[in-house]
Design goal:
Its EC number is 2.5.1.54. With 450 residues, this protein is an alpha/beta fold. The protein has twelve helices and 14 strands. Bound molecules: erythose-4-phosphate (E4P) and phosphoenolpyruvate. The site of erythose-4-phosphate (E4P) has 8 residues, from loops.
């Protein structure tokens, strides 16, 4: 075991003197302290060495040698910790990974928004329904989704449930990815359900046949089939609740450095990335690979300051900029950032999140996103990098393995009138399995053309 069971209070908690946005207001601070003490005694969910390995993979992304596929739920839910739901999400990511690797001929680094994505930053502190106003739902790690006064009170015990839900999820993910299910020779098995008959499912089937042929050929040439048996898969989530993240921050006994052992990679969101606030301070202390979401108001000067704070050694793989501008802004806003960051000599990974800048409310009241806007933002991202000669390093998407109706469009088209049929997200609309596959094929084409 490489990670010390003790946290380094002084080093891991320097954020406590700074303003921290989007933190729950717990009614009983003593109860919170007791929970933090328990969390500090729990074993790590990931090992520091695994975080280092992901940093090395992200270095390849930053240098233009690999592509990041990061995806999963907008908000995981405690009652979603089931074998079926976890397998479906994983299956979707594995299928997307196979499409991107084979069709774009690029190594794909696979990172789930999984095993820890239980906390949500919100635009408003309250929500009103039929004249009743209550605190907004902030994710299962904070309060309940039910619209009742009791359920919306932040409860620190939920932080422990988050830890246990993350542990169970990660355990299953590790079993699936190393126990044979993710074996590349199973490419057809990942396509054995409702998605098989969709246009993207059929296209996938054709690609899976080609992969089979390629594997048979390599086998005949003497390649070792064992090599395709397991898949490297990493966990990530937004480091939003600093009490939780710092309770899971430990000193690595190999190096004496701090790692947030709640996930391999964590990111800081658009609403908490203020340079002089607590979240950036926290991120600056840990050695994990770090993502920063960059929305349309980000200036190049800010981007350079993130590099100064979070990647002072200019270490490729340490810092990923996850750009979420919106389809109508990406082509205007991104070039200045990429140009100035590149000119500074830093090697960051550039990744597109084409979801968060493209949300709107349908007439039915459902929060949704158009598949075409998602695609257009990705296209804009690729165009900017092509024009500047830089590397479009990956995609970060909200998706689910289930057949939900939350985003409109896609090859197996979902219309605004269909949204109510299976609208299951706890927060933002996700691509369903077939839309996710559509996106993977289209991104692979863009990557190849690049
Ligand atoms: O997932 C991201 C945010 O939590 C979400 O977009 C905020 O949504 P809200 O505007 O409904 O609060
Ligand atoms: C809240 C999120 O995104 P952003 O910070 O970019 O709005 C998210 O990715 O869940």
């Amino acid at each position: 075991m490489t990670v010390n069971a003790k946290t380094s209070q002084s080093a891991g908690n320097t954020w406590r003197d700074l303003p921290a946005a989007q933190q729950p207001e717990y009614p009983d601070p003593e109860a919170l302290r007791a929970v933090i003490a328990d969390l500090e005694s729990y074993p790590p969910l990931v090992f520091a060495g695994e975080c280092d390995q992901l940093r090395a993979r992200m270095a390849a992304v930053a240098k233009g040698e690999a592509f990041l596929l990061q995806g999963g739920d907008c908000a995981e839910a405690f009652d979603g910790v089931s074998a079926d739901q976890i397998r479906n999400k994983l299956k979707t990511l594995l299928q997307m990974g196979a499409v991107l690797t084979y069709a774009a001929s690029v190594p794909v680094v696979k990172v789930g928004r999984i095993a820890g994505q239980y906390s949500k930053p919100r635009s408003k502190p309250t929500e009103t329904r039929d004249g009743v106003t209550l605190p907004v739902y902030r994710g299962d790690s904070v309060n309940g989704f039910d619209f009742t006064e009791a359920s919306r009170i932040p409860d620190p015990e939920r932080l422990k449930r988050m830890y246990h839900a993350s542990a169970s999820t990660l355990n299953l993910v590790r079993a699936f990815t190393t126990g044979g299910y993710a074996d590349l020779r199973q490419v057809h098995a990942w396509n054995q359900d409702f998605v098989r008959t969709s246009p993207s499912g059929q296209r996938y089937e054709q690609l899976a046949r080609e992969i089979d042929n390629a594997l048979n050929f390599m086998h005949a040439c003497g390649a070792d089939p064992e090599e395709f048996k397991t898949v490297e898969f990493y966990s990530s989530h937004e480091a939003l609740l600093l009490d939780y993240e710092s309770a899971l921050t430990r000193v690595d006994s190999r190096t004496g450095q701090l790692y947030d052992v709640s996930a391999h990679m964590v990111w800081i969101g658009e609403r908490t990335r203020q340079l002089d606030h607590a979240h950036i301070e926290f991120a600056s202390r840990i050695r994990n690979p770090i993502g920063i979401k960059l929305g349309p108001t980000t200036t190049a000067e800010e981007a350079l300051q993130y590099i100064e704070r979070l990647d002072p050694e200019r270490e490729p793989g340490r810092l990923t900029f996850i750009v979420r501008m919106g389809a109508d802004k990406i082509r205007d806003k991104l070039p200045d950032l990429v140009e100035k960051v590149t000119a500074s000599g830093a090697t960051v990974a550039w990744v597109t999140d084409p979801m968060h800048g493209n949300t709107f409310e349908a007439a039915s009241g459902h929060k949704t996103r158009r598949f075409d806007d998602v695609l257009d933002e990705v296209k804009g991202f690729f165009e900017v990098h092509k024009a500047l000669g830089t590397h479009p390093g990956g995609i970060h998407v909200e998706l689910t393995g289930d057949d939900v109706t939350e985003c409109v469009g896609g090859g197996d088209e979902i219309f605004v009138d269909d949204l109510h049929q299976r609208y299951e997200t706890a927060c933002d609309p996700r691509l369903n399995r077939s839309q996710s596959l559509d996106l993977a094929f289209l991104v692979a084409e863009m990557y190849r053309d690049q």
